[in-house]
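Sanity check

After download, print the first record. It should look like this:
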Amino acid sequence: MSTALFQPLPGEYILFRTTSNHKWYIIAWKIGSGVIGLIIFTFVLYSLAANPTENIFLSFLSVWLASLLAKFIYLGLFPLAVVAWVIEDVACSFTGEFILTDQRIWVRGSPYAWSQSAIPLEDISSLTWRRDAIFLKQESSPKIRVYMFSDGKLFVKAYEQFAGSAK
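Expected structure tokens:
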């Protein structure tokens, strides 16, 4: 998966382009809520699950090793996974880009910061939005793709205008 920037094809015209919201308060909210969530998640998970997990480990490990392993899992691995999720969410804010051209929809940074895709317009059977999500149904796939994007409403309206004028 390449993180290359958008390159228009020969004869391709950009109809609508939008990028993720880079406002400081959006980024601060994502980081702040992630840190608060990490603290709450770690406290609750450790309080509820560490002792039962340690008891399971005691059936085949020594006391100190069972305690160490339970602490490693609940105070090390789980918080690390939450931190990775927060970093991914913030990275999506910086890399997200949706481009509607007269030939395709090009998406980068949604649903993952490193993801990139191009969907030909003739392969799109429906494109809708709800809140911050864009739902794309392709003719070639039974699955519905979901992209998180704050300007989804504007993007879908631009697509509908182009699709309506192309008919």
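If your output differs, re-run the checksum step. Summary of this record's structure: The two ends are 34 Å apart (CA to CA).
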